[in-house]
Amino acid sequence: MAGVQDQLEIKFRLTDGSDIGPKSFPTAASVATLKETVLAQWPKEKENGPRTVKDVKLISAGRILENTRTIGECRSPLCDVPGGVTTMHVVVQPPSTEKADKKAAHLPKQNKCVCVIL
User: Fold this and answer.
1) Which residues, in sequence order, are bridge partners of residue 87?
2) How confident is the model at residue 98, as a pLDDT?
3) Is the distance from CB of 28 to CB of 6 less than 8 angstroms?
4) What is the Cα–Cα distance from 64 to 45, expressed in whole angstroms?
5) b/e per residue, 48-83, with b = 16+ CB within 10 A?
6) Model confidence over 58-110: pLDDT tens digits?
7) Would strands 85-92 and 7-13 be described as parallel, antiparallel, or unpaired?
8) Which of 45, 50, 59, 91 lies 20 to 30 Å from 33 when distance is taken between CA atoms?
9) In whole angstroms, what is the distance from residue 48 CA to residue 21 CA?
């Protein structure tokens, strides 16, 4: 019976409302392992998918989960429903535009004023 309690059923909710999973994970698994699973099972037909684990943020019980923590450390008391499935929300960070950032750093700042007459 202890082996069953050391597992959590987790599904991943994407921003469009679709789900990946549910899948069973040991409580000793790291958040980085969950992110690797999301990356591997990401639907190929969806645009703007994550390229690396660093592009994925997992949110559970209103908290952004850190890669180095385990699922057992991150779970909330609400996850302790027997036979329940925990839903984690997946947020994909947009790819950074390093070239645009470098260009903007070299340009002098311009004062812009906008007036609106109603």
Assistant:
1) 11
2) 59
3) yes
4) 26
5) eebeeeebbebebeeeebeeeebbeebbeeebeeee
6) 988 888 889 888 888 877 665 566 677 888 899 988 766 655 555 556 666 66
7) parallel
8) 45
9) 20
Which token pair is 84? 């329940």
* Cα end-to-end span (Å), the chain: 70
Mean pLDDT of the chain: 79
Asked whether the beta carbons of 64 and 31 are under 8 A apart, the reply is: no
Tokens standing for 87?
A: 């839903």
CA dist 32 and 57 (Å) reads: 10
β-strand 63-64 against 7-13: which pairing, if any?
Answer: unpaired
Are 22 and 34 within 8 A, CB to CB? no
Q: How many CB atoms lie within 10 A of CB 95?
A: 11
